[in-house]
């Protein structure tokens, strides 16, 4: 498109490291997404092999929901396909192609962790997909109309969701909010006084408090920097909470005396290293479509790897590896419970 029109303000390329091929003005940024597709397909093959060889005794071990694992692999592959489409001409209006399946992946990771110990979550699959549609709609609206009022409304929804999820996780999803709930809570506070403030589940309460502090910090930053990139803020909220919930899950396993196999720890170490590298590359961007095209070109930089890839290409490759390793961790984290009777498996 840039070659056809001569207008360099249409697409936010890194012009110092954009290798054309045929009709593609920036082939390397399209090609570097192949990691998502290959590793997504590899993960689905891994799930298929595991499904065929996995033998589970009745009423023992964590229930296996293979469809959700396949969904993670497919979402990773689709992230690569749509990110490649976005990089044909990267700009503000088509960024939702690049970010949509990252939103999907974040939500699926949280569901993947929650559902093994709460099998009834499968009955609410339609609610999960409705939530994903709402998140994508919010993301598109926030990119097009990033007003102060919109940020205030989004922040209110964000913090309300944090409150709901905190209560749901702390009370195992069994608490029902109605008039009797509040009257019972008031009576308990009056009778117990300061003792009512002491949590019954100390470890769970402490971990949830840390997660809430992190979310309040993100929400505050979003309100202060509301003129910045909303799509990346939304991605930070979703991916940040997926990481926090993963850490919560691992810590709760250890506190309940559940073992984690050595290969799962290896996946965790490798995924952490890959995420660290990916985050450093992501924050050191070579383009910024939240600025004008001329301002964005000041962030352009020369190729840093093989005289072909720049930092954003390396972000594609490292984040694909990080997601794949994270999925492998989610797939195997409960392997040590294979022979444990289900009535002995803790719910958290």
UniProtKB/TrEMBL annotation:
Main localization, broad class: membrane
Keywords recorded for this protein, A-Z: Glycoprotein, Membrane, Signal, Transmembrane, Transmembrane helix
Transmembrane portions of the chain: 30-47, 68-89, 95-114, 126-143, 149-172, 230-250, 262-283, 314-333
GO molecular function: double-stranded RNA binding; RNA transmembrane transporter activity
Bilayer topology term: Multi-pass membrane protein
Keyword Cell division listed: no
Family to which this protein belongs: Belongs to the SID1 family.
Protein name per the record: Sid-1-like protein
Species, as recorded: Plutella xylostella (Diamondback moth)
Name of encoding gene: sid-1
């Amino acid at each position: 498109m840039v070659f056809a029109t001569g207008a360099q303000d249409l697409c936010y390329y890194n012009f110092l490291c954009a290798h054309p091929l045929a009709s593609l003005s920036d082939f390397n940024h399209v090609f570097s997404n192949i990691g998502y597709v290959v590793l997504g397909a590899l993960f689905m093959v891994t799930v298929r092999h595991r499904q065929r060889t996995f033998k589970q005794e009745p009423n023992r071990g964590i229930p296996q929901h293979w469809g959700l694992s396949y969904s993670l692999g497919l979402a990773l592959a689709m992230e690569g396909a749509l990110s490649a489409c976005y990089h044909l001409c990267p700009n503000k209006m088509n960024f939702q192609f690049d970010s949509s399946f990252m939103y999907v992946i974040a939500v699926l990771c949280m569901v993947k962790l929650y559902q093994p110990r709460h099998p009834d979550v499968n009955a609410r699959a339609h609610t999960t997909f409705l939530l994903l549609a709402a998140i994508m709609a919010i993301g598109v609206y926030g990119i097009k109309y990033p007003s102060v009022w919109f940020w205030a409304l989004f922040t209110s929804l964000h913090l309300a969701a944090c409150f709901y999820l905190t209560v749901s996780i702390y009370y195992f999803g069994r608490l029902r909010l109605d008039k009797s709930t509040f009257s019972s809570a008031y009576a308990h506070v009056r009778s117990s006084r300061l003792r009512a403030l002491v949590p019954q589940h100390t470890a769970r309460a402490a971990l949830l408090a840390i997660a809430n502090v992190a979310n309040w910090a993100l929400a505050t930053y979003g309100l202060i920097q509301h003129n910045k990139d909303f799509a990346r803020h939304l991605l930070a909220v979703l991916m940040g909470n997926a990481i926090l919930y993963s850490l919560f899950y691992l810590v709760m396993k250890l506190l309940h005396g559940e073992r984690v196999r050595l290969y799962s720890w290896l996946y965790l170490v490798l995924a952490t290293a890959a995420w660290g590298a990916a985050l450093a590359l992501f924050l050191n961007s070579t383009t910024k479509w939240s600025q004008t095209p001329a301002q964005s070109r000041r962030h352009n930089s020369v190729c840093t790897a093989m005289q072909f890839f720049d930092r954003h290409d390396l972000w594609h490759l490292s984040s694909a590896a990080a997601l794949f390793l994270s999925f492998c961790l989610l797939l195997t984290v409960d392997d040590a419970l294979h022979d444990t009777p289900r009535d002995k498996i803790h719910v958290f």
